[in-house]
Amino acid sequence: MADRAEKKARTRNRLIDSALAIIGFGANFASISLREVAKTAGVVPTSFYRHFDDMEELGLAMVDELGLNLRRLMRGSFDDKEPLELIVQRCADAFFRYVPENANLLQFVNQSRTGGTKALQDAIRDELQFIGSRVATELSTYAPELNPQTREVAASLIVSAMLENTTHLLSIPDDNDTLRDELKQRTIDQINIILAGAKHWAPDNTPREA
After folding, report:
1. What does the pLDDT look like over 145-158, one tens digit per residue?
2. At the fourth CATH level, which superfamily is domain 55-201?
């Protein structure tokens, strides 16, 4: 039974890897067929249905994989004994290593975030909201002077900045370390500016309607 379960898991992972490989060759996930994925994985189409009901369910599994990866990445980046500036640097370093190593998965997310099915869009939005909530929770430790609402807004802005810069990072050629380093520093600067602005934000000073 253990061998059978292990074999099933390997085939499932091979199907996911095959879809990502096809995306890596320039395809859009929305245009990839089930048969194409099965053929690339070296299995018959009927084998695909033993693991996923359709391509949408395969896509949802890929979103789950991204969520698990980002959770692991965040767990290894936060240390409440270190200053916030160092945490920002460490998170940026980790993320800028992760993106090139998982470019096809991030390309899939970019494609599906706005151009995928509603289920895929909702799943990606939920993952991003979870990441934002986690960042807001961490800010309660590193920036306790911020009220909950300000933490949530700052976290949302940080996630948005990371998403935008992920798209830029994916477009940088593998051999252009200079552009990659410049983008990483700009990302760090953006996050620090967001946090500095949050610390000086005074809602009572916002214009009010007459």
Report:
1. 899 999 999 999 99
2. Tetracycline Repressor, domain 2 (1.10.357.10)
